[in-house]
Amino acid sequence: MSSRGITVVEDMETGALFDAEPHLIQELVRDEIGKFMRQLEEGARRHGLHMVRCLTDNPVQDVLVEYLRRRARIHNRGATKG
């Protein structure tokens, strides 16, 4: 990497070399992932689904238990207001 922040990248399909700026690539990827996640959340909401975001190193059972506890608290709060 040079002092300009430019990195030479090799295209895995063609073998062509090109200059890239890693911080710009990171920014573009982050933006695209953000758009994708918003679309996913909107789609889930439209279909009445709850979406739980979590880290992949969290055991599924821990994520599920926490979700069910949170959901029960919300449900119980709503039941006592009636």
Descriptors:
82 residues; mainly alpha; two-stranded antiparallel sheet; elongated
In short:
Helices cover 57% and strands 10% of the residues.
Q: How many angstroms separate the termini?
A: 64 Å
- Percent helix among the residues? 55-70%
Order of helices and strands: EEHH
Strand content: 5-15%
Helix segment count?
2
Report Rg.
21 Å
Number of strands: 2
- What topology, given as strand order, has the largest sheet? 1-2
Uncertain runs are none
Sum up the overall morphology in one term: elongated
Name the quaternary structure: single chain
| Biggest sheet record | 2 strands, antiparallel
Mean pLDDT: 90
Structural class: mainly alpha
Could you explain how this protein is built, in words?
The structure is a single chain. This protein has 82 residues and is mainly alpha-helical. Helix content is 57%, strand content 10%. The chain contains 2 helices and 2 strands, in the order ββαα. It has helices at residues 22-46, 60-81, and strands spanning 7-10, 17-20. Strands 1-2 form a two-stranded antiparallel ribbon. β1 and β2 form a beta hairpin. The radius of gyration is 21 Å and the shape is elongated. The model has no long low-confidence stretch (mean pLDDT 90).
Give the helix/strand layout.
Blueprint: E1 7-10, E2 17-20, H1 22-46, H2 60-81
Antiparallel strand pairs: 1-2
